[in-house]
Amino acid sequence: MSLSLSMAAFALAASISPGPVNIVALGSGARHGLRASLGHAAGATLGFCLLLVLVGLGLHELLLRWPLLGRLLHGGGVAFLLYMAWKLASDDGALHSDGQQRAPSAWHGAAMQWLSPKAWLAAVAGIGAYTGGEQPLLWLFTWIYAPICFVSVASWAWAGSVIRQYLGEPRRMRLFNRGLAVLLVASAVYLIV
User: Do 165 and 158 meet the contact criterion of CB atoms below 8 Å apart?
Assistant: First the structure.
């Protein structure tokens, strides 16, 4: 039981802390509301759980053997963060009710996890700390992690939906989006330096 609680505490700390996936969830909640942002949260959860399982089954070893693949993932992650920052910074700030803009999809959430260095660090650290190479522990860790990850990412989307009422004016939404864009650029710069 204490191992399960420790796994849950790790999952919560890693999932609820700020990172690119949560920043996008916050922006999506503010722009599209909680319900429309839950697809992003579900995709991010499934994407991370798949990453966790594959790291537990040896994917990390493959990346150590083929460093070019790891560098390509790293470069793709930085490029994706910069792309998301550009999308936020160039947004017009209007809350469209006609569905012109869509909330980030489940695929988008899953891809963000695979390109997020924070997700890779959490997966490698969690596997190293809790599974010891034992598959039953890998599956236990994944089953514990999944609902915690979903609730954590959804909490960021909920927080965005709560502040949405203060961002109804396009100028405020633009400022908010640009602030989030700066955070994503800062994350990308941190990865480059």
Answer: no
Task: Say whether pTM exceeds 0.85.
Answer: no
Question: pLDDT of 132-151, one tens digit each?
Answer: 888 999 999 999 999 999 99
With CA atoms as reference, report the closest residue to 11 among 102, 142, 138. 142
* Backbone torsions φ then ψ of 38, nearest 5 degrees: -70, -25
CB-hemisphere CA count at 13 Å for 79?
A: 7
What are the pLDDT digits (tens) for 150-160? 999 999 999 99
**Residue 56 to residue 127: CA distance in whole angstroms:** 6
CA 93 – CA 171 distance, rounded (Å)? 6
- In three-state secondary structure terms, 168 is coil
Distance of alpha carbon 60 from alpha carbon 133, whole angstroms: 12
Buried b (16+ CB within 10 A) or exposed e, 77-111: bbebbbebbebbbebebebeeeeeeebbebebbbb
Q: Is there a contact between 51 and 123 (Cβ–Cβ < 8 Å)?
A: yes
